[in-house]
Write a structure and sequence with these properties.
Its main location: cytoplasm. The chain has 238 residues and is of the alpha/beta class. The chain is built from seven helices and eleven strands.
């Protein structure tokens, strides 16, 4: 069976890396992610990854501390670099070539993000890990994921989460919450759904890039998302 998508960008939250811990990095989670991505590359799919930093630092943590928002966001970008380096090492341990590319210049530990260089890495079947946000404050990593997916010509933007789909309301507090299997961009935005940053969805809408939100924690789901596309919630033009 041929893959539905030949080039994908996968967004992972920093919180996903902490596993059952309160913070930090659970290395068993890194191993799980690297094995899942390894299967994708084995199927001929080119993979970019955008990782958040919430397991180490969230800009929202700055409220009431005296830190201004821009400073807090830069700290969050540095946290994504730490996570990206951990992911790069995990990918290498399973025999994959990987490159962490940062929008913030930190040349001693990772490459600067240069679009043409990222495209060349993807063509050479290297996993490209996009870190350092956009290099600017006030942007979420959802938006970074959408931006990088558009820049590298991905066929779809995958968002791995800890829920099975986009719901009409929070399923943790509302037993009547219903999952959506497919949504239009405008429908997602009009209903003010919180599963993804609205700026990221708007950016995908303007560039006709579909989004698939799915549960990352179930083994095989990444491959299923790319090979079959029959899980989670697909957000695209109506």
């Amino acid at each position: 069976m041929a893959a539905l998508y030949k080039r994908v960008v996968l967004k992972l939250s920093g919180e996903a890396l902490k596993g059952s811990g309160a913070s930090g990095i659970d290395f068993s989670v890194l191993q799980f992610i690297s094995r899942e991505v390894e299967q994708l590359l084995g199927l001929g799919v080119q993979v970019g990854v955008v990782i958040g930093g919430g397991n180490i630092w969230r800009g929202a943590n700055a409220e009431g501390t005296g830190l201004d928002r821009a400073t807090a966001d830069y700290m969050g970008m540095l946290a994504t670099i730490m996570n990206g380096l951990a992911l790069q090492s995990a990918f290498e341990q399973v025999g994959l070539e990987a490159r962490a590319m940062s929008a913030l210049r930190l040349d001693q530990v990772c490459e600067p993000y240069i679009r043409q260089r990222a495209l060349e890495h993807l063509r050479r079947n290297r996993v490209v890990i996009f870190v350092g946000g956009t290099g600017l404050p006030y942007f979420t990593t959802d938006t970074v994921g959408a931006l990088r997916a558009i820049e590298v010509g991905a066929d779809i933007f995958l968002k791995g989460t800890n829920v099975d789909a986009v719901y009409s309301s929070d399923p943790r507090t509302d037993k009547m919450a219903a999952p959506y299997r497919q949504l239009g961009y405008d429908q997602f935005l009009a209903h003010h759904l919180k599963a993804m940053d609205a700026t990221a969805v708007s950016l995908c809408r303007e560039n006709h890039l579909p989004i698939l939100l799915f549960n990352m924690n179930k083994p095989g789901n990444i491959v299923r998302a790319v090979m079959q596309g029959d899980i989670g919630t697909l957000i695209k033009e109506a």
